[in-house]
Records
---
Amino acid sequence: MNLGLQALLAFTPIALSGILLVGLAWPAKRAMPLVYVVTAIIALFAWGVSFNRVAAATLEGLIITVQVLWIIFGALLLLNTLKHSGGIASIRSGFARISPDRRVQVILIAWLFGSFIEGASGFGTPAAVAGPLMVAVGFPALAAVMFGMMIQSTPVSFGAVGTPLLVGVQGGLQREQMTTALQAQGQGWPDFFNVVVSQVAIGHAICGTMIPVLLVVFMTRYFGRNRSWTEGLAILPFALFSAFAFTIPYALAGVFLGPEFPSLLGALIGLGVVSFAARAGFLVPKKSWDFADPKEWPAEWMGSIEMKLDEIGSRKIPTLVAWLPYLMLATLLVLSRTVPDFKNMLTAVAFNAKNILGETGISGGFQPLYLPGGILVFVCLVTIFLHRMKLQDFGKAVHESGGTLLGAGFVLVFTVPMVRIMIQSGVNANDFTSMPIAMAHWVADSVGDVYPFFAPTVGALGAFLAGSNTVSNLMLSQYQYSVAQALSVSGATMVAAQSIGAAAGNMIAIHNVVAASATVGVMGREGLTLRRTVIPTIYYVVLAGTLTMVSMYVLKIGDPLLGVALK
């Protein structure tokens, strides 16, 4: 089978997903079981993957599904706990005191608070935490999903304290061979890796500057009374100020401190600066903007866990006490990723399955305490005492969270295994590369010297499939580096483009959309979200591709291994 036909077959599940979800507006619970079956058939009969390996990849996907559902449950439980404790009422009034303007609030909650949660945790947690918080303070549920997905771009490459680069890029490259080549030139691995990290930080800082602008114009266009782009552009100076308040310290941290801190520091500094500016009215239009009365909202905007004022609780909780669960969550997430003893304690509780169904090389595991879900549940338990809740009210929160979880569980049971079959298809009777790599090879062979422009798109494709920047980097970093060698251009720049694109791909990753939708109760409208988030994704990969071409062919930026052939 020639490469073109391989790529076409490999692309079939993606195309089918798009047609069913976006084109025909099928709910994911109808579309994804069919896409799973088609993927399995292609793997079995076109790729020659054994039935045992397809089954093992499916079980691996189910293990990952349990992890995702655990995170969703924790996020739902925190939201419902705060609803019944009265904390949400205080948080809502607190945002109103900073600014009643929803354009300011979406920047504070989605762009800055969401970026901080991404920097601390990753794993799709920002949409799961920031999305429900936006609903709690009065945003339409569908809008909260869209905004939660859109901010899973700029901070993602440095999410979970740098995991996509520290694990994804370093684990995805032939590090031993590259280190030997570097040592022959009197350099070391850090010299190459630092170039990658710096270019990722600078590239994201440039691309990410427009994300707050897109957030506000999408909000006023798709969820405003007047469906107006200009009402969003009216706050353009403040949106750009908010972008730079994050991206400047973000880029500086990436260049001078390394991959662990850009998203964390950028978001913390940005939150402080932007909150102060908003409270002072700096660059904020005098005319505030708000949604129409919720009674006028279309049914498709609404979620099953909408926060009605009469459901939030009448107890008065001081604003700081109301925010303590979120502050505790952020602190514990950072500590769990940066303090070895604490991390080891949490990871000690693990359920692992190695070589699923025999010597397949496919493994999976579940670490309930280390995953954000475990930390979220712990914070909820502490909140019972912090907010002096009745156990009866906490019981209601548990019941409501479990009920909302069921819909997401059914969809993810098919979505994640479908992805794992594609990724694990590289071991087969026909000696084909895996489906994602086949698509990437076809793109490279088709476009030649202009391939660097498409490198971020290839990275985004990997993240679209895997729902993870880290997995996309693990899967495609060495491939991207090899193409750079063949073209005699900077491998570090190509790998950086891969990481930037993989971050952008999170905005359209199907199982991330499903997870985000579940946290606010809008299951079945995934296609509507994807139709909108694909716009900022295209913006991101096109700009990142353009920057890559300029870096390689105009500025001629190199790296310590430019022109060195690996043995």
---
Amino acid sequence: MPKELVLQVSPEIAADAVLLQQYLSKQIKVGVSEIQHVSIVKRSIDARQKAIKINLKVLIYLQGEAFKESSIALPDYKNVAHAQEVIVVGAGPAGLFAALQLIELGLKPIVIERGKDVRGRRRDLKAINRDHVVNEDSNYCFGEGGAGTYSDGKLYTRSKKRGDVTRILELLVAFGATPDILVDAHPHIGTNKLPQIIQDIREKIIECGGQVLFETRVTDILIKNNEVQGVVTQKGDAIAANKIILATGHSARDIFELLDRNNILIEAKPFALGVRAEHPQSLIDRIQYSCDYRGEYLPPAPYSIVKQVGGRGMYSFCMCPGGVIAPCATSPGEVVTNGWSPSKRDQATANSGIVIELKLEDFAPFAKFGPLAGMEFQKSIEQKAWHLAGQTQRVPAQRMVDFTQNKVSSTIPTTSYVPGTTSVEMGQVFPGFLSQILREGFTEFGKSMKGYLTNEAILHAPESRTSSPVRIPRDGISLEHLQIKGLYPCGEGAGYAGGIISAAIDGEKCALKIAESLQ
């Protein structure tokens, strides 16, 4: 039996297999040559003290003990070419993992994606960044892999109660992700590596007899006697099925409008909204690691911060060490920001959404829109940002200290946001109560993280797509829509997930419930 050990070591030892083996040999009092293999089970950073340590949980195999290099294989997927068909609307994490689960259960997924395949999306992303042209069907939010493909691939989740997180991580590894995601406390794939993984998932779906239809937007859901019959696409084609997983993501406003127009029950949902703050990564390293220079053995430092300000939560969201800020509008006439990091997190800047919890009463000025009130509130801020930025994808920007002092920044340095910036007083972007909470909140952040409140930090507005402004209510047991039989609202867009892992888990759960109903 291997010996399990939980320990703290220096970053240098944790990064070097030989040094780690030498260290462990002293801990368990055996010669180095007696150690056959060391498996790292868990890894995290402890930066609470000036001398930073790495927490490790390891398994030590001595010579003569049974050890075999572990490998993770894909499930035994069936060929489902002639099986019962299930429509999956959306090829983000929820839709793709729902499709894989359906295949595993012997059902044929027909995945319908409004955007382009993962490679084709790149041209449209370039058009947003370079030419300020937004393709409503192919952008940072829409297309194969969904928003997660080009927004970092962070896999950390607190949603372990929702389902089997390890299963999702192992599937990602089997499709090509680094095995480190099974070990690290805050696993991350990287925007540069995700496209190939997403493409391999799609190819497996097709290989097993499933279908994936790109550049195919759903424009209607066929319903008879409160039961789904299929969907209609923008090409006028009808695709029949009496089971539909609706996994369209948090930005599919046309789907929310379609449901509301057809009197299919939806609800306004609170979400969070604010700015994306960018600091020099070296500054965040100094704050978090309490050192002048991070060194080669520590990763770029992240941060997480939460405050109660004016009776509301204000917190960091989707923090990207060594990352960049991206333009994430899904329609012309709006500006939206998000952030991502490459796998090495080697960019010069760190960015994070800094957002404030909204309440349903905040949407009162848009009450005439009923369950779409939150969406219209969100849209109004994005459109205002577009006008303030000269009706381009340039983003309203302000230095952080200047913002807290209600002062327009005389200069804005070049940031990682490629389309460029326009110096604006952020109070023009947000309603007065939000601006005031943000000002107070940044002052409080500066007290907790000495050096965080600085004019080296640039605020970009708005960070508005943190989660869906709409919930599509479903039965807690069957997961079917409360009103429409055979319709399974799923993932972030339906209001039941918040990130890649929880969306993937929800997709699998919906697929399982469909299989149960068919039995």
---
Amino acid sequence: MSKFNNKKIIPRYSFLAILMTIAGVAVIIKATYIMTVKHDYWMEVASQKKFDSIRVAPARGNILSDRGELMASTLPEYKMFIDFMVGGEEKDSLWNVKLDSICMGLHQIFPERSEAEFRSHLEEGHKNKKRHWPIWPKRVDYNTFTKVSKLPVFNLPTLKGGFHYEENNARRQPFGTLASRTIGDMYGAKDSAQFGLELSFDSVLRGREGLTHKRKVMNHFLNIVDTPPTDGDDIVTTINVQMQDIAEKATEEELQLINGDVGVAIVMEVATGDVKAIVNLEKCGDGKYRERKNHAVSDLLEPGSVFKTASLMVALDDGVVDTSYRVNTGNGQMKMHGSMMNDHNRASGGYGTISLGRALQVSSNIGISYAIDEHYKHNPSRFTDGLHRIGIDEDFKIPIKGASPARIKHPSDKVNGQSTWYQTTLPWMSIGYESQIPPISTLAFYNAIANNGKMMRPRFVKRILREGEVVREYPPVVERAQICKPSTLRKIQKLLEQVVTHGTGKKARAESFAVAGKTGTAQISKGRSGYKSGAMRYLVSFAGYFPADNPRYSCIVCLQKTGLPASGGTMSGWVFHNIAEGIMAHSLNVDASSARDTVGMIRPDVQRGNLKATQFVLDYLGYPTSQNWSDQVMLSEQDWGSVGFENGKYLLNRQDISDDKNIMPDVLGMGIRDAMYLLEDKGLRVQVSGRGKIVSQSPYAGTTIKKGETCTLKLQL
């Protein structure tokens, strides 16, 4: 007989089945009700628990020098706050006890505000129970942030002490204003590029944004990554920091001496077209010189006598003249098609009859313009076509916003149906007027002469890196394999050397190597006002290359100034000299064996400065060193001092350099590089005169200083 009693069990199962059916129907009805009637309400609740599609900014790529040094980098900055609603009574009691210590510590970190001011500010936030009260109104760097976060109460966990912060990315240029207009800048918090390489390579540097969403779990919001951000790539430029520094110092020094308005200097590597230095200084309202516009690639000005080289090259290449061709320049004045052509020495009687080669050496306007006009006046198109053939008006596609190619007139040009070509156009064009050429184009032409006729495109960026790996190369580009006949080129090269040795470019000469180049002085037209409206402005230039017998670098210097005197040879030629001397001295490869003579050791003079760098150089040259402190620990970047010589060894004397940002350090006896590092680290602006080691400084060591103050250094060999 079965133990299963259907009469008892079946009703029970039926009852449970009915209950489950009712429950299921109720769930479906309720779900339908929520999905329809209560849809908007529950979507609003969900939005409070979850945040979708939050953009995550990528880290912007770095801009590097030709040797991998950081020229522009993204660094974190912090805005600091305190939440007075967390921590309860325990936090409040601790706050009251430690408030004096907090205010004292903040005053030491931010001396601009007194302890009393910090106390008043913090007490106001505490009284009103603020949850996001700013500790300091501005963003601070990481070092300052860590100092603040170590103060009492601020060093507690966020939910106990209330200290919290916002992290932002800031663009910084470790070398300050070096090549700042070419490197570029950003629009602060907008994270958008303004100009320079920052703008031209913005899509490469920017990277791609990521997406996350936040979900509230156990009363905490968790970040859930949907798409990770892709950081920007790095770009390696052709800029050399040392050459840039040399070029800027030389240009600014001359601008101050002549009270100039604008100074441009560009240094290019002959073989590759790499722009190693580019200076764009402009006089501001306060009398200081800063980079505000990239004049080197955008200034369309009449170049003056540096253009005569191009004119003579065309004539020699066409075979219409030779360098021995004789021209009667008279007494330095000659009427050409009704207008007076003048030579710079007309007051002393002019040059008389001279060869065309000599005319270039002494920069005779009459000599060059007469020869060109005599042989091309019946077919001026042949001359302008020749200028195009040698590449003086080449469009180099410079990767900097505002860059413009040269503009050379052609006899067929018309404006509003009227021809712009007159009888005087050809002779004046031949000496550098009636054309508009940016300095970068003029330099590329002279660089081609130095490069045996091969014209290179000016290169600013060499490669793109992603996590240290090369993802794209920008190889040197040959614009023209040969700008003229080899015979023409040899004559031009010889003449450019003679300009420096026997002509107007003597100021550009160097003591230990040959220099070649051409001077230029031109009046700057004031548009419709012409050349005779108010005080006359001049463009004085020198373009050339060095060493002349084996060219490594080409360089152009263009200075704009108001009023006389104005001389390309004297003013720009001297800047060229200083740049060339500085670059060649820096480029010398020192062999340790050459530091000794047949008698004994030649002991170099060692300046004060960073001891770690000093020891590295002395070790490399094979000179023994010792220390004046007992603990024989490895030197760090923070070890500074002087060096003596005892018992056949160099003695390193460590000296403390004040960490106080408000105290002027002692930089006497240092080289300019170490001194600039110390002073700019303290927020000072530095003015330098002379060469060698520092012999005087103002303010004096130990003086109280302020951020932004100007420090004057005098150097002497």
---
Amino acid sequence: MHSIRLCFLLSAFCFASAASAQDDNKITLSGSIQSDMMLPQSDSKTGAEKDEDFLTNTYIDLHLQQKYVEAGARLEYMEHPMPGFENDFKGWGVPHFYVKGKLQWAELTAGTFYEQFGSGFILRTYEERSLGIDNSLLGGRLVLKPLKGVTVKALGGKQRRYWHWNKAFISGADAELNIDEWMPSMQQHNTRLSVGFSWVNKHENPNDNITTTQDMRIPNGYRYTTYQVVQPRYVNAWDARVNLNHGAWNVLAEYAQKTADPSLDNGYIYRRGNAAMLSTSYSQRGLSVLVQAKRSENMASRSRRDMKLTSSFINHLPAFTQDHTYTLAALYPYATQLADGEWAYQTEVGYNFKRKTTLGGKYGMNLKVNYSYVRAIDRQWEQNKEFSSLSNSRMELAGTEGYHSKFFKWGNETYYQDLNVQLSRKFSKSFKLNLMYMNQRYNKTVIEGEGGMVHSDIYIADGKYQFSPKTTLRAEAQYLCTRQDQGDWTCGLLELSLVPHWMFTVSDLWNCGGAETHYYQGYVTFNTGAHRLQLGYGRTRAGYNCSGGVCRWIPASKGFTLSYNYNF
């Protein structure tokens, strides 16, 4: 298989070179190298285990660009993968390779590629290395721009799953119309209007081994009957959206629906899925406002229906919760409930107090308030009169409609709630302080499988002092208090930056209310030109790493780390 990909790449590069020679256009070579390495150690206090002496995740990306042709490839080496990337991630090869031809208003890609329709409700393929996600498609994509303001896409291929491609074939089309480009009067009034329509089809052969057992009531007792769950070969999904931008206002509305797709995610039920979103924002003169709501139901869509965790997703639904960067604020991150569905709300207000005012002080002040709330949808589980009693066990409902749900009705459970207030103020030319308070409710049972509701209050202070144009010291102090789960946590960090080359960082995360374990870390970072080298040592706690509502479990680890990045 590696030889086939190598031949593909060599042919693509030769084609690009030939095109360059004919058209007298130079070829531009660009790329990057990323290598994360570790010398692991066992640690009884954190549960870290040492299975190998040396671990590494290494990626080498290469891209050749010319006026009409582009080609690229990525080599990945994870024969001895970093913690959290074991098992299916282990291996090496060239999983990403493509050649792209561009001519006037047409663009054709062959090989592997990434694509997103709209907000990703029915299709989003992307790479997120920190989560171990690369669900690219292997096939072809055609992009046409035949008229002003019109973009049409068509694609087809098989989806990557670690070092293989799933057997299901994914095809789809998308059309986006920028209406304001046809109407000069809208542009004169600073108004932009676009509408989009998408369709995605999955062709997957059914799994004949999926069965369900039901207990039928008869006069003298019960008779147990086993049924085969017949899965559809074709699953279709469509999406429609409209985006209006006028001055400081922006409004986005989107709705998607998919046909029945009985899978491991939903317990092999035959209910259709749908997702609806409305997002409104305003930004002008120091004031920003965001209000958005989303309802989703049974929208887990995979290219292999018997998969679980983060593998083989075709689509993506944004979490509508804030992605926190501070350690304790991100200790309990939210993961979008694609299969069960959810009502999700988020609102954020930001305001800049002007300089030389009572609240703004000499240098001004920024205040931001964010509130996120995620709740279950209403689900009334189906009761089939033919059977004695069906519980909420999903496999007992396999082959049925599963449940009924009223669109605007909430369910009984709160999944997540986050109210945080952030204050940023510069007190002098040298000193700036950021303060944050956060109140959080985290349904650990829903998100992780067990643990109940965790209530926490989080306090954060982040100060930065600039001694000189080249020397800056930043310090963080964080505290999380809770009576549930592992109890209270504290976190401290010091970061010394010596521009343009050096940065020194030390931190300690301490579970002071539970196991009283210290997760200490130290890093030395060196930058020169396009090179970045970081050496570190310390402990990492076991927990979830999340981005945009997608989460992956990371085991505890301890040891020396070395990271190298180079872009050219």
